[in-house]
Design a protein that fits this description.
Layout (H helix, E strand, L loop, with lengths): L9 H7 L3 H7 L4 H8 L3 H13 L22 H12 L3 E3 L5 E3 L2 E2 L5 E5 L2 E4 H10 L9 E4 L12 E4 L1 H10 L22 E6 L2 E6 H9 L1 H27 L1
Antiparallel strand pairs: 1-2, 3-4, 4-5, 6-7, 8-9
Helix pairs in contact: 2-3, 3-4
Length: 246
Amino acid sequence: MTEQLPSDQSTASLQTVSDPVVLARMANKRYPDIARELGVSEALARYRVKRAVKQGLITPRQAHYSPRPSRGPNLTLEAYNARWLARIKTMVIIDEKGCWLFQGRFQKKGYGQICYRGHSTNAHRAMYMVTHGVVLDGNNELVCHSCDVRHCINPDHLWLGTAKDNNRDCGNKGRHHNGVKTHCKRGHEFTFENTAFKHGPGTVMRVCKECQRLRMKSPQYRERANERQRRKREAKRLQMNGEVGR
């Protein structure tokens, strides 16, 4: 049983169209059936039909194709955010801790991934921008979790900070990758007697005392120490000679 073609300009179109994909679509066949019968991908079949429509070989009605107008750019920011927020609320599950667990697509690191205004971004970052009305700098501003659940998008569990703030929060909660280490890189245990603390700008680091002793006994360390002492003595000698010359 053959299907009838649309009546408008069918004969004229058949005379100019030779693409079997386009002819099959004009016969009102579904794209999966066209791809299976002609041995092409469904995406390629859609592209060839759309190209024929753009070239004017067939009409959108003949191809059973009506391009949907882009709705995102025509909406105001407030209207888009309201529609986006209503959609994303259907993609979460609320647990007993109050976390909004995102149920969409995830990154390798466990963060939710979603599209916001035509760009793929982290779901928790997009949620923070929508609920707080800000535009984030991707290089310097991080959206951190107070609940430590990476795919949580509850606005009450999100706070804005820098990489330093995030590392400090991680260390205070005992989750930093260096804070959970029990031995140094040379295998010495971080005991009370073998641990020293080095204070840096905005941070505190643990130092292995045994590694310090071994480093101070090495020939390279002794050579550098002797060179520093030599430079100090030379600078002191030049200073004294200058004072005497006066």
